[in-house]
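Input record, target 12 of the design panel.
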C-alpha cells in the first residue's frame, strides 16, 4: 500500500459525501488524504467551505496513491467544461488497475472522460437526464446504491457511509460493516460510551499529556 489517497475537488463539490472516506482511511488505515484540483486556488464546496488544494493534477502520479476519489457536486456544469480536469481523467485510462471511486455526481466526470464506456456504474442523475446526455452510456447504468466494476467504484449520495467501506475492501483492507454508520437505539446505552485504556494506553496517555497532568 502507498498509504495515501487522492481527493479531486472542483467548484461546488460535496465535502459531506467524502468526509467519511477521508476519516476512515486516516483513522483505520493511517492513510492521509491529499487534495488535488486543476488549479492551486481556493475551491468552495457546496456547503460554502473554502478548501485549498495541496497539489494540481499536473503533479499527480498514480504510483504515489492507493486510489483517487471524486466527490459529488451540486452543479456539475462548470467543471464538465474544465478541459484540464477531463484530460487528466482521460489519462487514467492507461492504468486499468488503479482504483477510482466516485460518488453522487462524481461519476459524470468519469463518463465524460470515457472511463465508464465499458463499465457498469451508477450516478445520482434522473433516468431522463442519463438518457439524454450523450456522453453517458446509460445502457451501462445499474440503479443501485453502489456498483463495483473492475477498478471503478461508483455510488449514489445516500451511500456515503458504505462508500468508504467498499473502497477499503477493494484495496484489500479488512473493514467492519458499521465503520461509519449512524447511532442506533439498540446501542445507545451508557455502557456503549464508557471506553477504557489498557495499561500501555495509560502509559502513552501519561507521556503525551504530561504537560497537563
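The sequence produced for target 12 reads:
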Amino acid at each position: 500500500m502507498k498509504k495515501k489517497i487522492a481527493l479531486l475537488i472542483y467548484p461546488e463539490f460535496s465535502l459531506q459525501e467524502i468526509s467519511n472516506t477521508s476519516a476512515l482511511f486516516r483513522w483505520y488505515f493511517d492513510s492521509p488524504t491529499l487534495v488535488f484540483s486543476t488549479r492551486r486556488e481556493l475551491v468552495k464546496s457546496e456547503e460554502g467551505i473554502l478548501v485549498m488544494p495541496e497539489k494540481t493534477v499536473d503533479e499527480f502520479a498514480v504510483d504515489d496513491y492507493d486510489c483517487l476519489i471524486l466527490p459529488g457536486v451540486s452543479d456539475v456544469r462548470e467543471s464538465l467544461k474544465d478541459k484540464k480536469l477531463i484530460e487528466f481523467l482521460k489519462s487514467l485510462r492507461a492504468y486499468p488497475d488503479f482504483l477510482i471511486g466516485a460518488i453522487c455526481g462524481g461519476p459524470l466526470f468519469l463518463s465524460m472522460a470515457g472511463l465508464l464506456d465499458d463499465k457498469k456504474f451508477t450516478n445520482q442523475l434522473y433516468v431522463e437526464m442519463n438518457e439524454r446526455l450523450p456522453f453517458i452510456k446509460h445502457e451501462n447504468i445499474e440503479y443501485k446504491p453502489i456498483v463495483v466494476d473492475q477498478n471503478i467504484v461508483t455510488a449514489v449520495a445516500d451511500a456515503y457511509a458504505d462508500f468508504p467501506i467498499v473502497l477499503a475492501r477493494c484495496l484489500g483492507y479488512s473493514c467492519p460493516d458499521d465503520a461509519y454508520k449512524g447511532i442506533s437505539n439498540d446501542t445507545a446505552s451508557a455502557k456503549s460510551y464508557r471506553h477504557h485504556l489498557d495499561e500501555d494506553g495509560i502509559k502513552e496517555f501519561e507521556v503525551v499529556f504530561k504537560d497537563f497532568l
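The longest helix spans residues 16-29.
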